[in-house]
Structure formats: C-alpha cells, structure tokens
Amino acid sequence: MDSKCRFELAYTPSPPERGYTNHILWVDLGQQSLRVEEVPPAVREKFVGGRGYCLKYVFDATNAGTRYDSPENLLVLAGGPFCGETAWPGSGKFIAGAISPLTGTFCDSNVGGHFFPLVKLSGFDALCISGKAPSSLMLLIDGDAGRVALLDAPREDLSFTEAEKWFEAWKGGGEIRNVAMLTTGKAASTTLFGCLNSIYYDVKRCRCRAKQAGRGGMGTVMRAKGLWGIVVRNNASKGLANRPADATRLRAAGNRLRAVIHEVDPKAMRMYAQGTTSLIEMMNASDILPVRNYQYGRSEEAEKVSGDVFEKRFFQQGMPDGCFPGCNLACTKGCDRHVLTTGPLKGREVAVDGPEYETAAAVTNLGIFDPSFMMDYSWYCDEYGLDTISTGVLMAFLIEAYERGFLTAEDTGGLELRWGGIEAASSLLHRIAEGKDSFAAHSGRGVRHMKGWIAQRCSARTRRPREQIVAELSRFGMECKGLEFSLYVTKESLAQQGGYGFALKGAQHDEAWLIALDQIRNEMPTFDLKARALKWFPLFRTWFNMAGLCKLPWIDVRHPEAKNTPEPAKNLPTVEYYLDLVRATLGQEKSLEDLLTDSERVYTLHKLFNLRQGCGTREHDRIPLRAMAPVYLEEFLSRKAHYERLLREIAGDAAADLSDEEKLRLLQEHRLAQYEKLCDAVYEEKGYDRNGVPLRSTLVRLGLDDPAYLAILEKYEQEGRAEPADATAPPVRRLAN
C-alpha cells in the first residue's frame, strides 16, 4: 500500500487550547500544495467553528457562478470548539460543507466518528480543500510526525471488508484505534448524492466501522476534485484534549448530562438498545412513517421492522456503541454478521453499521417491510458511497411515477417498478450506483432533475405539454431546493412543513426537527407557537453544528425537570449543562442569548449565500403539495374520517355536502394557504421581508454589514425583490405570546 508522495509539508502541531488549535490546513489539489494558516481572531469570534467555518471559507472562495465541480469550490471539513471532548457525550461530530451538486448552493452534512477529533489533535480546526487533481490523490495527516502529505491514491475504492488491512498499514508505530479516514465509494462518480464515509476502528467490536456525511453530495464533491480520501493518525491522549479553562466544571456538567441519559433513555427512546430504529414504531403510530413515497404515514406491516426486531435479531446485546469515547447514549448500533440476501454480493457475510431510522424509513417508503433487505440496503449504500436518504426518496418517486403512467418499461430499460418489489428495488439501487445506462445515469442526478427528464419523455409519448407534466410530478416529487426530503410525513404538522421549507440546505430535518414536538407531543398547538419555534429551534440546532456536538443528548433525552418549565420542548435544564460546557471550555461566561446570536449570524450568512446563488427567496421555500396534504383521492380516503373532521372546522356543516373530490380540493387549498401564512409569520420573526430576504437592519444587528454581504442585499433591493429597510429602522414586530 505504499504510495508515491507528490508533496509533503513538515509542521509543528498546535495542540488545542480552550477548544481551539487556531490553525487551518489548506490543500490545493490542482497545484498539489499544502500550507498551514492561523485563524484570524475575528473569524473565530464571529463564526465559532464547524458549520460557521465551513460557510465563511466556502463563501469567500466562491462566487455566484461556482458549480460543485468548479476548481474554486472549497470542500471544508471543520469540527468546533467542543469536538473531541471525551468528558462530554456526543462530541465526535464535524461538518463537511461545499457548494452542493444537488442544490447549486452551500450545503453541509453532519457526521461523527473518530476522524475529526484526530485531525484536531493533529493541530487543525478545519481542512480547506480546493482545486482539482490531475490524477487521483490521497491526503495523509500524520499528527505524530508533524507531517502532511499528498500521495498517489490506491487504484481501488476502499472496501469496508478490507478496511482493517488498510488501517494496519497506516497505523505507523501507533495503535490501529488511532487511525481514521474519510473516503467515499464509486457512486460518488456516477451520482450527485455521493456520501462521505467517516471510518474508524472500534476496539470493542474489533472491526472498522463507518458513519456517513450523507446529505448534499459531499462525496461527489470530493471525488470531483480527484481526492480519493484522507487518512489521519495521531496517538496523543484524547482525555480532556481540548484543554478547557476549567476541567473540574466541565467534568461535573458532563457527568450530570450522562446521569440524565442513564435515567431517561431506557424509559423513553431506548437508543442504547435500538439506536434510532426506535423511532420506527413511534412514527408509525402517529402517521408519520413514510410509506409509498409519503402517500401514507403508517402500515400494519411496520411491526416487522420495529426497533424491537432490530434489537433482538441484528444488534449485538449489551455492546457499548458510542461513535466516540464519552457518550453513554451509545446509539451507533450495528450487526457484525449479516448475510446479504440480495444484489451482486448475495450470500456474502458482511458487517453492517445501522441502519439508522432514516435508512430504514427510506425502505418503508418503497413499500418494503423486510428487515433483511433494510440491512442489505444500508450496507450497499455505504459501500457504494450513496446517501441513503436521497437514494431512497428518488427510488420511491420513480416507482410512483411508473405506477401512475409517467414512466414506462421502455424508459426504465425493462425494469417494472412496483411498490413492495424487493427484486426491482435492489436492481434499481445497483443500476443507479453503476450509472452505466441512460435511465440510471439520469436517475443519479436526483428527483429535481428526474422531474424534467420524465416529463420530456412522457410529453413526447402522450403529446401533453411538458410544463403540465412537470407541475403534476412536482406535487409528489419530494425535494426542496434540489435536496430530497428526509423521511417524515408532514401532512399533519405545519411546524415540520416549515422546518423543511425554510431549511437553508433543503428539506433536511437536522435544522428543525419539530414533528415529534408538534404532532406527537402537541407542545406547540397554536399557530404563533409554531412560527416562533421555527426561529428558535433552527438557531439552537445550528449551534450544535458549529460546536462539534451531537444533538441527540439534548433533543431526544428530555431532562425530568423540563416538564416544570414554561417551554418543555426546549429542554432548558439540559441546555444549562451545555452552557456549563461552553463556559468551562472557553473561560467565557456566555449566555444562551449569546449562543443564539452567534448561530443567527451563521444562519443568516447561509441565507445570503443562497441569495447570491439565486435560490434564497420565498419561491424556493415552497414545498411539494404532498408535504402538506393528500395529492390523490386514495390518500384522502385512507384517512377520510380524520380529514372530514378537519374540514368541518374549516368550512362548517357545508363541507358535508361536498363530494370526496371537492373535499380533497378544499383541504389542499386550505393547507396551501396556511403554509403561505406561515411564511409571512416566520419571515417577520426572523427579520426578513415578505420575499424571504433579510432586512438591512438584521444584517447590521448581526455584524454582517461587510460590503460583500450588503451587495447581495442591494442586488435584490434594486431588482424589486426585497423591501428596502433603513439600517436604523426599529426591530420588526415579534409574534404575540
């Protein structure tokens, strides 16, 4: 596994101090050069780390014409000040960000494992990767030797089943547990939704494992740059490696949070035993589990794939499964011995990590309730380097388009796509990964692209106008801003509809996962509460992505005392622990409002980024009809009594005299109107105009009044697509309590 060195750089690693190394590694693949730079204090103060660093550096390096495969597109990998803190649960997280091949604007993906904590121990708060290599290269970061090198890449993609062999070769004189890598698979070259695999060695299971940065095609960006992967090794101690200002205070807060997890999780989500598959039963019981391309929210067959099934049949009992030391939530479940039941490697025994809820729900969305196929699907997607969410949502869209006559067997190359068809679904998955035939190659460009491709062929066949067909496909083509929806049925949750529509990267739940709080717990029953939540929750969740932390110990493990607070959904007793983490690490007595302001600055920069790329206004926040209401009559009839109760509230007794078709149209019109009303309320709450463009006063308040940022706003003002506002104007009216 020796590789020729193209360029190397000797450096002196800067150990973290109060959460930061204050250095960035810059990699230019086109010039095959490396350099280390200090992070300016103003950048650290304004953008914090993680998602903030990704946004700042990608914005500065690119322009409105930059595409995902442009040499200047920057792929940034960044932890945060608390990434790698073993005294705290869920601290292995980092962010991968770049201009996305799916959306055409900035997108970031959150991933765990050991990779970035080792990068940080090696002296870097971020890696900034530009250019395009003339031949495939790999990056080696040797924190032990103080050496960074660009090497010729191996000829083959990394196979998980052989990962230990590679790790053994790269461990140098240290331990295999202190090597990690970031790579992808062959589908990153054939699709726009290639993922990144963050691979590490699990000493308890004695095998390599992987976590995925799935969303937005970050693996596709890395492969387009000619970067095969990144290997890091560092044998320094991980204990309190961030050198906090007050280690005693930090340990005490971390122990309190672990005590809450230990008390609450076994009685609530049971993630220690079932991982996020524990969500399947909960979502199904509340009509939220996606079935047949989000047409339905539950199925009697869901019991076949419940968290109990995975716990008893696949997951190893009693195995501590945290993706980084110090986390007792330990939700990273897996199966060490699974025999593949489908696909080209059928009969082969493999180790599977997961599936996570999103991966399992991607399969129920195909109408398939076979746990073995879910394991197959999870493993193959990871092996190919495919985002399980985008892949599954795309496949469900194609099946529905086939079922409704928009696609034919001639279009699909003879493949008959039907709900519940495991053989056809398996064939489609592998064809998309290979990308060798026309249908598969086009499918690999995602739902947004396929709406146009299908409409073009359907129009030629039926003589119907192409625009009319695109409009109908858009009613059930589950994407927003080009990113496929994550996997929750949102028809009955206005808050989560907004959570998807306003999400700046596209329809992804990590920005505002409100559906359980809204629909299951009913903790935001009024319109105003939903609108206010759509400001507060995205900001606090953004903070986690800046900090280098997992959100689950906060959002999915509710402190027993939260019920005694005015807003239980915010879980403020646990938030106090996070404030102790901040204060103990940084040595600064920051308040919750300080964290929210830091988040709002980063969040607003992302909004400006979208505006610069031409996709930041109200029209881009609209979501498919199916996210709001039934599209076709059979969906309406599946919950007819429920919808008729709602219609009586909307139209009174007059609704009883309507036909089912008229009732469906009335419901659709009402839901569309409610969403537009929500846009108005949330934009006002965020300090935007009615077109979704930030007011000038908002930028000034957040310190985003740099000329480059104001120029974006001025462009929209001059074009009449923004409402001008004086920088000294009073704050916008806040929603009433």
Explain what this protein looks like in three dimensions.
56% of the residues are buried. Helices cover 41% and strands 12% of the residues. It is globular and about 75 Å long. It folds into 3 domains: 229 residues, Aldehyde Ferredoxin Oxidoreductase,  A, domain 1 (4-Layer Sandwich), CATH 3.60.9; 238 residues, Aldehyde Ferredoxin Oxidoreductase Protein, subunit A, domain 2, CATH 1.10.569; 225 residues, Aldehyde Ferredoxin Oxidoreductase Protein, subunit A, domain 3 (Orthogonal Bundle), CATH 1.10.599. The protein has 28 helices and 17 strands. Helix 1 crosses helix 2 and helix 18 crosses helix 20. The chain is α+β, with helices and mostly antiparallel strands and 737 residues long. The strands form 4 sheets. The protein has a 7-stranded mixed sheet with strand order 1-9-8-13-10-11-12. The protein has a 6-stranded mixed sheet with strand order 3-2-7-4-5-6, sandwiched between helices. A hairpin with a 4-residue loop joins strand 2 and strand 3.
Blueprint of the fold:
Elements: E1 5-10, E2 23-28, E3 33-38, H1 41-47, H2 51-61, E4 75-78, E5 94-99, E6 106-111, H3 115-121, E7 126-130, E8 137-142, E9 147-152, H4 163-170, E10 179-183, E11 196-202, E12 207-213, H5 218-224, E13 227-233, H6 247-264, H7 271-274, H8 279-285, H9 307-313, E14 334-339, E15 349-353, H10 357-364, H11 371-384, H12 388-403, H13 409-412, H14 422-434, H15 438-443, H16 447-462, H17 466-476, E16 479-480, E17 483-484, H18 494-501, H19 515-520, H20 527-547, H21 552-555, H22 572-586, H23 592-612, H24 633-638, H25 640-651, H26 660-686, H27 696-701, H28 707-718
Parallel strand pairs: 2-7, 8-13
Antiparallel strand pairs: 1-9, 2-3, 4-5, 4-7, 5-6, 8-9, 10-11, 10-13, 11-12, 14-15, 16-17
Helix pairs in contact: 1-2, 2-23, 6-22, 10-12, 11-14, 16-17, 18-20, 20-23, 20-26, 23-28, 25-26
